[in-house]
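In response to the reviewer comment on reproducibility (Comment 2.3), we provide here a single inverse folding case reported in full, input and output, so that an independent group could reproduce the run without further information from us. The structure tokens appear first.
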């Protein structure tokens, strides 16, 4: 049996997500008339709610990714509203993850996220300038993992965490 190391698994996961992103983008362009009909119908608003809920779920329970849905939302709502919906979903999901980790600790977190993944990032939490560190770490480390790590291993106040997270996810949401 062939054994695949973690780097190859991560690379294949990224390729799969990007492939789905491209496939969905192509499908949107090929079916633009149908999507325009959906947008003009009231059912499309329920997609916005579902989109936010899926972002929350994907942030709380790793390794789910909703990135392939971004082209659909962008086409339906434009990049501005899609970015706003992403920020709402990720901010809510990351806040839930942080509070779960803070309140219930390692036993609860281990059921939602890989402990290996958490340990990998644990030492990256700085002791000084934590606010700006969180803002910049948000751009480099997956939102879900960092939320759990900060909830478990930092003494940061929730208000500070929330504000730094908000500032850190806005550029990602706009760029996506």
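Designed residues, in position order:
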């Amino acid at each position: 049996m062939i054994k695949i190391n973690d780097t190859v698994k991560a690379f294949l996961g990224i390729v799969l997500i990007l492939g789905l992103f491209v496939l969905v983008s192509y499908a949107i362009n090929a079916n633009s008339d149908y999507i325009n009909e959906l947008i003009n119908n009231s059912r499309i608003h329920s997609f916005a709610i579902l989109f936010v809920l899926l972002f929350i779920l994907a942030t709380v329970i790793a390794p789910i990714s909703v990135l392939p849905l971004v082209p659909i939302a962008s086409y339906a709502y434009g990049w501005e509203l899609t970015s706003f919906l992403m920020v709402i979903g990720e901010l809510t999901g990351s806040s839930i993850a942080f509070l779960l980790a803070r309140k219930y600790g390692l036993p609860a977190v281990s059921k939602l996220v890989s402990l290996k993944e958490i340990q990998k990032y644990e030492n990256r939490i700085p002791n000084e300038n934590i606010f700006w560190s969180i803002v910049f770490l948000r751009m480099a480390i997956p939102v879900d993992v960092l939320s759990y790590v900060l909830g478990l291993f930092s003494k940061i106040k929730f208000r500070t965490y929330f504000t730094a997270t908000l500032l850190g996810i806005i550029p990602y949401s706009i760029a996506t």
